[in-house]
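Example record

One chain of 248 residues, shown exactly as stored in the release files.
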Amino acid sequence: MTYRMIPFRYFNAFMNMAIDEAIMEAVRNEDSAPTIRFYGWEPSAVSIGYFQGIRNEVNLESTKNAGVDVVRRMTGGGAVYHDYFGEVTYSIIGKVETFPVNIINSYNIICADIVYALDLLGIKANFAPVNDILVNEQKISGNAQTRRNGILLQHGTILYKVDVEMMFSLLNVSAEKISDKLIKSVQKRVTSVSDQVTVSMQDLQIALQAGFSHNRSVEIGDYSTQELQRATQLVKEKFQTNAWNFRL
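Predicted structure tokens for this chain:
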């Protein structure tokens, strides 16, 4: 089985989520090969987990003033700040039967590719169940997964640099908790590629392509016209709507 690998490209938050769903549909219908894609967020964005309440998690006034998009993911987990300059995000999409039934085992297999990529950059990392990757007990990557209609989607972020202050300004963290002590605490628990080694964002992108290629057959490809058209439709009908994002 050969995966289509799509190199790094920026999209806005709504299009990023819509592309994942459009590819899931195309893979399910066998119109597209299983796919690995790398992407960024333009503008920066906050994504919330499928089961979260947007008003509970996000300071909507702050995100509006900062020009930051807010979108609900198809996957679970917590609210995540996606910095334009701060991360590479990936998605891997394929038929469920090609992955382990056990959730943690499937996370482990996919996250091993990220660990391999980080090793290429000189960073020693390890998978920490259920879905994190750590460097010296500090989180450098968070991941989330869903399985729908026979298709597995896993996506996650690899932090290139971290802006904790910006993150706190956009999420609903009580004023008494936004303190130098808390910020320092988070900085101790989270790390990034640029904290560990001196490499460019492009270096990280190249390493991730190598990581996801080292134990599977891949061919470099691009989004199909049909996928992008379907994604554009999904943006309008789903991911940009209050019905989806606010669960109205």
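Notes: The longest strand covers residues 138-148.
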